[in-house]
Specification:
Length: about 210
């Protein structure tokens, strides 16, 4: 919620740029909260007409594809020494255990590890550089990268956007139902009290 509140204070162009940049850097191999930024921006788009969900999804997709491609190029050039250097700089994310897990995923799934890696926080950071280090043919990497970027970034934007719209309309409807219910409860209570008052009047008069 703090991320969304902060995004509300910046122009729509800045939101697009921020989403593309953060997701691109995360895909390149830098551990950043790309998914949090994307979800917050898509939710904001459902409540703020100034942000176009189509442009947002396209920007996020472009950032994911370009970032992964740059990460692939860096990994292919840097090789294993690059992973060792990243392990020293970011031990929490690029530990030997995490790298071994990612390598097993690549050995098992091949190019589809790049595609499915989009939906897993750890593999999303590793996919590009590790594919380059393991010398995956670029055409295979590119196919999986483009498909994964479109499905993950575009799909996440669309789902969160429509969920936000449905939730907002439901809450509006719920508020009206709550108001009607409150009025009905008030009227019922008033009628009950009036009836009780009428019943007690004869008794009081007799006494």
């Amino acid at each position: 919620m703090h991320v969304q509140e902060w995004l509300e204070t910046v122009p729509a162009v800045a939101v697009y740029a921020l989403v593309g940049l953060v997701i691109g850097l995360e895909s390149l191999g830098i551990p950043l909260p790309g998914e949090i930024i994307l979800v917050s921006s898509a939710l904001l788009a459902s409540q703020n007409g100034a942000i176009d969900p189509v442009v947002l999804g396209a920007t996020a997709t472009a950032g994911a594809i370009i970032g992964d491609s740059i990460g692939y190029a860096i990994g292919r050039k840097g090789g294993r020494p690059l992973l060792a250097w990243l392990g020293k700089k970011f031990p929490k994310h690029f530990s030997e255990g995490h790298i071994a897990t990612a390598e097993r995923s690549f050995e098992k799934w091949g190019m589809w590890a790049v595609f499915f890696g989009r939906f897993v926080a750890l593999l999303r950071i590793f996919a590009g550089p590790l594919a380059g280090v393991l010398r995956m043919p670029y055409w295979k990497f590119l196919i999986a990268n483009v498909l994964g970027g479109i499905v993950w970034a575009g799909g996440t934007t669309a789902v969160i956007y429509y969920v936000g719209i449905v939730a907002e309309s439901w809450l509006k409807r719920f508020s009206w139902l709550g108001l009607v219910a409150a009025v009905l409860v008030g009227l019922t209570s008033m009628l009950v009290l009036k009836r009780k008052a009428k019943k007690t009047q004869p008794v009081t008069a007799a006494e």
